Amino acid sequence: MWSLNGWRRRRVLARHPVDQAVWNRIRQRIAILDGLNAEQDQRLRDNCVFFLQDKHLNALPGVDLDDEQRLFLAAQAQLPLLNLGDLNWYQGFHELLLYPDDFVSPQRHRDPSGVEHEWDAEHSGEAWLQGPVILAWPGVLASGGWDAYNLVIHELAHKLDMLNGTANGMPPLHRDMHGKDWAKAMQSAYDHMNRQLDHDPDAVTAIDPYAAENPAEFFAVTSEYFFSAPDVLAEAYPAVYQQLKGFYRQDTLARLRHLQHEHPAYTSHH
Ligand code: ZN
User: What CATH number is associated with residue 247?
Assistant: First the structure.
């Protein structure tokens, strides 16, 4: 889908036009799209059409999915890819399963002594290697603001991470990036959080303590912050912000600052 040449792209877009009024509502509902310029807005909108042609949104009973809701999901899925070119970043899965509520899923973990632990955990999202992305619909609906929460971006960040093997916190980096710099920035922030939580499990961490769970969650959570609370992330872990800026090729902090500068009353998350 993503390597389509120009005329085929235009044909797909012509066959699946996005209603302007619906798109306007999407822009109103998703604050983290504020500040995109007209060219970026158009590109995002077109990419939503390709995304919705390429992926199957499978809504379970209880999820009310109309064109606007599909677009609401697609726009958040496509924001991270906006400047990443035509590569097929969401390859390897075709389905997004939408659950009406949080779901219980069996967890398994082998501890250092070799003992397998299994338990059930409440989840609002999951991304399986080579499998579908599962999203709890209320979590999708709660996403889109500058409030350090975005279930769609979180789960899809796991998919980006998995592009070069298992989820290990490092997606395939661009040629102008260095694995060493990435690892150093991520590891030192991750270690910092873990030291804080080892010292006091109830410590108030600068970002969601779930990031300290493992390197894959660290990448997913910091990606979430990069797009929905870049000021918090950049202040807490500036080197992490810089690496994510290099990876996503966006400067979300500059965009947020510009909005706040233009509109002093621009609401932020705190
Ligand atoms: Zn996760």
Answer: 3.40.390.10
